[in-house]
């Protein structure tokens, strides 16, 4: 029997149908099915597959399969493109795609940003919680603690732990600690209003740092760099109070934005974008 997986067919339903047809006997039987493409890599990403020993480096364009575990270095980033959503994996992050009939992702540590439109097709798990919904979502697990932060930037998400569920609308967040129920939904930090460089481009020579500044300042913030004509993130960093010196390693014109984080680690909406032009020396 030949099964063709079309772009408009949800993979979770397809895998479930295969299982019902007797082609997938259990979790181990769905290992190795291609579900995504590695669309972007900054500073390297490694994969540990169910059918191979050890970690191996990946490059943009490589396929990602069920059973794969991905990790990025301290200054790395990777973007996965599924037929129905994208996942941006931040620095020092470990993400697992279990070989299970119903597709989900498991965040072991770090930061992952999910974006899916229309249907409720995001399912994220951590050691402490399960998150479902559609829209744009940021999930963190960090600092060596059993702490999860889930931030709904838009859309609606349900965060469940220990039999309790919190519903998040756009601009709300919650935290989940090991052995506890989710905290009540709360508003995310406001976006910084004044950034420099702003809409007037700042020119910098290739290899030289650009000084980023913003206010109001927060003890911890999150910086992202995107192409001029796209919101696809090329690099990102967690940073302290401003100013912050950033080197963009490619020539071209880019946008940057900054998000504040509160004392719990919840990340707010990003600022308006500023423009940086990296030119030849």
Outline:
This protein has 281 residues and is mostly beta strands. It has one helix and 23 strands. Strand 14 (172-177) and strand 15 (186-187) form a beta hairpin.
Structure explained in plain terms:
With 281 residues, this protein is mainly beta. The chain folds into 2 domains: 11-187, Jelly Rolls, CATH 2.60.120; 194-279, Sandwich (Immunoglobulin-like), CATH 2.60.40.10. The chain contains 1 helix and 23 strands. The strands form 3 sheets. It has a 15-stranded mixed β-sheet that branches. Strand 19 (220-227) and strand 20 form a beta hairpin. The radius of gyration is 19 Å and the shape is globular. Mean pLDDT is 86; it is low at 1-28.
Supply the number of structural domains. 2
Largest sheet, if any? 15 strands, mixed
User: Got a strand count?
Assistant: 23
Order of H and E elements: HEEEEEEEEEEEEEEEEEEEEEEE
Helix content: under 10%
* Structural class category: mainly beta
Our Rg estimate from Cα atoms comes to: 19 Å
CATH C-level class of the largest domain: Mainly Beta
CATH topology of the largest domain: Jelly Rolls
CATH architectural arrangement of the largest domain: Sandwich
């Amino acid at each position: 029997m030949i099964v063709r997986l079309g772009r408009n067919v949800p993979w979770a339903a397809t895998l479930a149908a295969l299982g019902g047809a007797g082609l997938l006997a259990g979790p181990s039987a769905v290992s190795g099915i291609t579900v995504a493409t590695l669309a972007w890599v900054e500073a390297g990403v490694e994969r540990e597959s169910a059918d191979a020993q050890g970690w191996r480096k990946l490059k943009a364009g490589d396929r990602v399969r069920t059973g794969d575990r991905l990790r990025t270095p301290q200054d790395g980033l990777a973007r996965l493109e599924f037929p129905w959503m994208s996942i941006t994996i931040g620095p020092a992050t470990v993400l697992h795609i279990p070989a299970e009939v119903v597709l989900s992702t498991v965040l072991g540590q770090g930061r992952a940003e999910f974006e899916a439109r229309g249907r409720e097709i995001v399912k994220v798990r951590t050691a402490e919680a399960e998150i479902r919904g559609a829209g744009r979502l940021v999930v963190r697990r960090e600092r060596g603690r059993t702490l999860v932060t889930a931030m709904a930037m838009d859309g609606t998400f349900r965060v469940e732990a220990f039999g309790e569920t919190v519903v998040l609308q756009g601009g709300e967040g919650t935290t989940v600690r090991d052995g506890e129920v989710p905290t009540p939904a709360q508003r995310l930090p406001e976006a910084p209003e004044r950034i420099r460089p702003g809409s007037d481009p700042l020119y910098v020579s290739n290899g030289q740092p650009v000084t980023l500044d913003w206010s109001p300042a927060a003890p911890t913030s999150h910086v992202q760099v995107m192409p001029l004509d796209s919101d696809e993130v090329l690099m990102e960093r967690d940073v302290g109070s401003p100013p912050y010196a950033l080197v963009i390693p490619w020539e071209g014109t880019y946008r940057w934005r900054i998000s504040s984080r509160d004392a719990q680690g919840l990340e707010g909406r990003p600022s308006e974008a500023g423009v940086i032009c990296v030119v030849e020396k």
